[in-house]
Amino acid sequence: MSLYDHTIYSLIRRNARVLGDHTALICGEESISHREYLDRVDRLAGGLGKAGLRRGDRVAILSMNNLHYLDLYGAAARMGLVIAPLNWRLSKEEVATMIADSAPRILFVEKGFQAQVQGAVGQFEGLEAVYIIGQDPGEYPSIETLTAAGEDAPEIEVSGRDDFVILYTAAVEGRPRGARLTHEGLLAANCQYQYFWNLTPADVHLALLPLFHLTALGMWLATMQAG
Hints:
Blueprint: H1 8-18, E1 23-27, E2 30-33, H2 34-50, E3 58-62, H3 67-79, E4 82-85, H4 92-102, E5 106-110, H5 120-123, E6 129-133, H6 143-149, E7 163-168, E8 178-182, H7 183-197, H8 214-226
Parallel strand pairs: 3-4, 3-5, 5-6
Antiparallel strand pairs: 1-2, 7-8
């Protein structure tokens, strides 16, 4: 870690300090302040640490947009984990290809997509657990169990040059191909969004695109950077 390292978690922590009670996220009837978002992120990071995850480990998500998705992005940033957000529009076979390629230790799945990953723990090497996002998790534990178990997350030195996400591009030779993006790369790109659109803390982004997509991730981060 260098003297001036700045990561996505640095951004979340800064917003909680500077804009604590200002609204950070709205999802349905739920409104989350920047301070509350940091607390959610830290509790989930603590749960992931208690589950044995360490810097550089990979976590996959198969879910539509929700607050837990953004909690996972934030917790991964704190822990130095790499997120592989999976395209829920693809076939079961294509999803399996992405899971095998990204090699996650934990897979988070929204309840409605559970059938697409049936038997995943025994099928994919290195995959240790599946957690369900949503009510009535069934045979798998809920992501809420990690948040509830969360204690103080370990202090981990995360570099801005560390990988943050693996985003899957259009199929090449019939298979999706992963592109690794760093904290620094995403933050630098989002500075361009802020400059050209003159984003300020008064602006609001309506998140219509799925969070497995680079544009959706970039727009959320640009809005967070603007406060």
